[in-house]
Amino acid sequence: MTLVDGTCLVYLRIGLLIVNHYLRGEIGLINFRSGAAGSAETTTTEATTTTEPTTTQAPTEPPTTTPPILTFDPSSVAANIDLGRCWCDVTGNACDINCCCDTDCDQADITSFDRCKESPISVDSQYCVQEEVILTDNSVYTSQKTQDGLFCIYKDNNQARNYYSIPDMINSLDTFNFYRDRYASFTYSPTVSADTTYAQFYKVGDPVFVVYEDLTSGYLTIPQGEPNCQSNNPVSYLVDQSFKCMRQMRTLDADSCENTPYLNASSYLTSVRIVKTPYLFTWIINGTERSLYNNSYTMEFEMERVECVDGNGLVVDCSFNAPSFNASHCNNAVLGVEYHITHDGSNGITRAGVRLLLGSIQASDLPLTQTYGSSFTSVNEVNKTITERSGNPGYIVGKPVRAGVLVENSTLALGDRYAIVEDMYNLTIIRGSATGTCLTDSANREQINFGINMVSGCLIRFNLFNVSADQYCSAMQDTVIDAMEGVVDTLTRDDPTIQRRVATYGNSNPLVPGDWVQILRNAPTQTTAQDTTVTQEGPKCTISMGMHTEILYANTGALANPQPKIIGVSFKYEPKQDIIYTCAGTRCTAGNTDVDQSYEVRHSVTFIDASQPATGYVGEPPVFLAKVPYDFFYPFISSSTRTGPSSYLYLVTCIFIFLCSNVLS
């Protein structure tokens, strides 16, 4: 049999099958769109019944006594009909507005309607159109899709498949559960929680465990939140973190100072041990060790360093003391906590240290701002000098802008050289307390991070108690400068031999001063007698009340991998303005010079992109040399010999004579 014969046989069998089904009435007439349909039609009706599945109860379950359910015959529902012909008739014995199919509405009611509510179901009388069913669509409109094929079904003889089957009522819990388990896609029932499993060792991001003296376990946490402190943030393994948050203290007295846990340094390192590796809990579950608190898999926290903020805002080393209340001050209160953890990779934690920052607070400092952090160091890096980079080489957005002071270093073997000391200076922006007062000490200033523009404002408070009226303006201007640049920065401001510099790249070497750009500063001019005027309201000063830190940077390297480089930093002070010390209130009596006056100052940070566009090299246009083969002018010139100057002259003469003859003719 050839391939053609086999193909014909297949088509013949398909034709016989279609005729057979047509004679049995299982499909409708098949019609060309351009032709007329046959007149023979056969309608069949199929009865559908819903059978309840049978379930067998497990013999291990105890028998339950269930009260019998009273069953009644439900109302009969006709099969294979559209039940929602008048869907808008929702009020019995009353006419629903704009429901034209409501039998309770007479002709007068329908005449008063402004419209008839459209049925959300479109009844299509064209059988050769396939309707697209949308299950969950709240729109009153339906979507139709017309098939553009050559054939279509003109009349569907199996009408039952266009209607839902009438389900039976469910009268048993087993049947209900069967349908629920089969058709429900979601349930609010609680799932059975699996037993907690513990890993053999810590991985990056895993919470660090601690155990307490009362044999309870938990996570090592550091408070975070904005603005209030939330003590539910676990320390993540090998992930350095740092947060600032506020404690909502309303009053400050002896009880709150000495008995508040987060103000007491001992609460961060006593009666708690850090878990070296989570294998401890597997060890305990297996019964190898009974003591959860004191064992070889836990260790105590070590006091690594204690620092205090003195009255001038400087951070100095101090001793560990419990909080004590003296008059209106709470001394040795915790201002910051940092956990410094040494690790050995998958072998777990080898050492846990705590660094504390203490200080004296008073009621005006409430609510209290505290700083918390955690850092991890490998055992292989303990004896190495670790240098934090802000990029390699270009700055990374969000990383601190590195800054330092240029000092003379005479201890190097090569002789007198200069180097950058980053510990002496940090590029920061002023920050206000909860009451709006400027926090000028270095511990409470906000770090300037690369690529992040910031603006801050706060209040400085000043009085005439310690200065005379003629010195008031100069003293106030110095206070503004200290607030803008930091109290510690007065050393670098007054000493011209010390220069503040900023790293051009995120990985600039402090021993190469050429990679550090100097901070340019247009400081306000010294106040003079013309800037100070004594009026009836009080001293009037003409001073600057704000500063803008502007940082210029440019992208370097490849266009596909730009590396930002800082090329300039400037401290730009605002133009001077008039400030008047005005006393108001009952305290303004003769001789009362300690009345505080509040003035607003502003500080902003702006990063300016000064990148130059890439300039591509365009080569010189090539010189086009027109050359022709040596026999190009054949037969005017013989191709057997090289043409000479006389031949070219002969050719040109002939062409000239030919052109002249044409013109004259």
UniProtKB/TrEMBL annotation:
GO terms for biological process: cilium assembly. Coiled coil: none annotated. Signal peptide: none annotated. It comes from the Eukaryota. Residues 82-166 form the Tectonic-1-3 N-terminal domain. Residues 40-59 have a biased composition (Low complexity). Keywords: Cilium biogenesis/degradation, Glycoprotein, Signal. InterPro entries: TCTN1-3 (IPR040354), TCTN1-3_dom (IPR011677), TCTN1-3_N (IPR057724). Residues 40-67 are annotated as: Disordered. Residues 201-376, 390-574 form the Tectonic-1-3 domain. It holds the Pfam family TCTN_DUF1619. Belongs to the tectonic family. This is Tectonic-3.
